[in-house]
Amino acid sequence: MQKRIWTASTVFSLSRVFLTVPIAYCLILDFPGHRWWAVGLILLAVATDFIDGYLARRFHQVTEFGKIIDPLADKFAVGIVAIILWWLGQLPLWFLLVVLVRDILIFAGGMYIRKTKNIVVQSNLPGKIAVNAIGLVIFLTILQIPMLETFRLVMIWLSLAFMAFSFANYTQRLFIGRNVAKVQNDGSV
Predict the structure, then answer these.
(1) 79 to each of 8, 95, 101, how far by Cα in Å?
(2) CA atoms of 66 and 164, how far apart (whole Å)
(3) Among 124, 127, 117, which residue's Cα sits nearest to residue 75?
(4) 188 is a domain residue
(5) CATH number for the domain that contains residue 167
(6) Predicted pLDDT at 124
């Protein structure tokens, strides 16, 4: 595992954070094709998520910083877009609160474990499924295709189930200490 912070994979992770600005612009302002621009930028952000993981594994650029910034970038981007969609009246407040509270608790728990036990809790499959389900809800909400409204509502409820399962999984991992990576004693992150 590398000790350095700046790698191509971490730059791709951080690009998701920066992509939230033009995505927000496209969602908030009403101009021709603004929703399709937002969708295109979100697809670009999704691509960066796949690219950063591929680069980290392929070129052995897995870093402790990357293990933190990758899921944090996902949480930030999803949270900001969800807040904007709620503000625009397109997502229910209760759904937004569940997304935000879950992510804040997972992040706070991870930072607590990092500080007290010098362990970085990595994202795992249930968490990735939950984030992708939330992303699909956001995607369908932005598209606003009447034919897909029932599917969007089903996905809201499915994403809640995925969030609950992944939160329970993270909680179990935090308290039992399974599937976590120890950070080097030199304090590098």
Answers:
(1) 24, 11, 10
(2) 25
(3) 127
(4) no
(5) 1.20.120.1760
(6) 78
